[in-house]
UniProtKB/TrEMBL annotation:
Domain of life: Bacteria
Name of the protein in its database record: Uncharacterized protein
Source organism of this protein record: Palleniella muris
Length: 317
């Protein structure tokens, strides 16, 4: 199945698909300036995870940071029972990226705002201890020990469970609907996951997930990401070695919790919207005739538009 990516510069704004759409952003306007919401404060206990909780009428969510960013190596040939953790549960502060977007208001710049937490998303209980060898070969002596993260990282077959540490998002919807989250991904070749908590299984990009966005400095609307497929890890990669600024959109099921994260980096979070129901009044960009061309990108009526499509990759009827 072909994956369609409308690679458009994005400034999410409030998406006005219909009157029911709900949204929450990491930013707010204070005295005319865009600032990070006061919710983003590190836990006073450095050894505890920082958790920002947010909600709308039908969605409850969390954004996490830390607390363990790594472990200190140990010198010597005696295997320790445990390694000393490096704690960091802070937040990056508000970051922004100027997007190459034409605006109805001449001279108006459009920015992509986001915030990141600390620590890779892992099941911290599964971090092991590996020897560090002095040289190579089977007889090389052990000179120390370090953390082994292999089994702690998420596996797309669900066998390693869900993250309990680091930076990730969760969304739980009270009703069925379409959930769209605006994210920053460091390098499009990193695994990106939207995972169901009920079975630890991920949704696939280009199939259950519609991904739309702006690949670092790409100004054209591209029809598809032809370098990746639908099987194995290719179903969870946005493609390319450039940064991705955009949206992930999927049909959320009532009562299900979805984890959103990158496998070995900190995903950036900007905003999410939720439209209850089956998305009546919108049409996915995949298969639509307008996706075959590169229409003008504009900010119109407070919404980023590419032809007849909003930045969630949906046709507004």
């Amino acid at each position: 199945m072909k994956k369609i990516f409308t690679l458009v510069s994005i400034a999410f704004c409030a998406m006005s698909v219909n009157a029911q759409t709900e949204s929450w952003a990491v930013t707010e306007i204070v005295e005319g300036e865009t600032v990070l919401k006061a919710d983003y404060v590190a836990n006073a206990d450095p050894s505890a995870m920082s958790v920002v909780r947010f909600s709308t009428a039908n969605v409850e969510g969390t954004h996490t940071s830390g607390p363990i960013a790594g472990y200190n190596d140990v010198e010597g040939n005696v295997r320790p029972d445990e390694l000393e953790p490096k704690y960091d549960n802070g937040w990056s502060g508000l970051k922004k990226n100027k997007l190459d977007l034409e605006s109805e208001t001449t001279g108006t710049d459009v920015y992509f705002y986001y915030v990141q937490g600390k620590g890779n998303p892992v099941d911290i209980s599964k971090v092991g201890i590996d020897p560090i060898y002095d040289g190579t070969g089977e007889n090389a002596p052990i000179k120390g020990y370090r953390a082994d993260w292999t089994s702690a990282y998420y596996a797309f077959d669900g066998s390693n469970g869900l993250p309990t540490n680091g930076t990730y998002l969760t969304f739980t919807s009270k009703v069925d609907g379409v959930l769209t989250t605006k994210v920053y991904v460091l390098k499009g070749n990193r695994d990106v996951y939207v995972v169901k908590a009920s079975d630890a299984k991920p949704l696939r990009i280009g199939q259950e997930i519609t991904a739309n966005g702006y690949i670092n400095n790409t100004k054209t609307v591209m029809e598809e990401n032809a370098t990746k497929g639908t099987e194995g890890t290719d179903a969870f990669v946005l493609g390319g070695g450039q940064n991705f600024w955009g949206t992930l959109s999927w049909k959320a099921v009532k009562g299900e919790t979805y984890y959103v994260f990158c496998k070995n980096t900190q995903i950036g979070f900007s905003e999410f919207t939720f439209t209850p129901g089956d998305g009546t009044g919108i049409e996915n960009v995949e298969g639509a005739e307008a996706a075959k061309v590169a229409p003008k990108k504009v900010v119109k009526n407070g919404q980023v538009m590419i032809g007849d499509f909003n930045i969630a990759g949906q046709r507004v009827k």
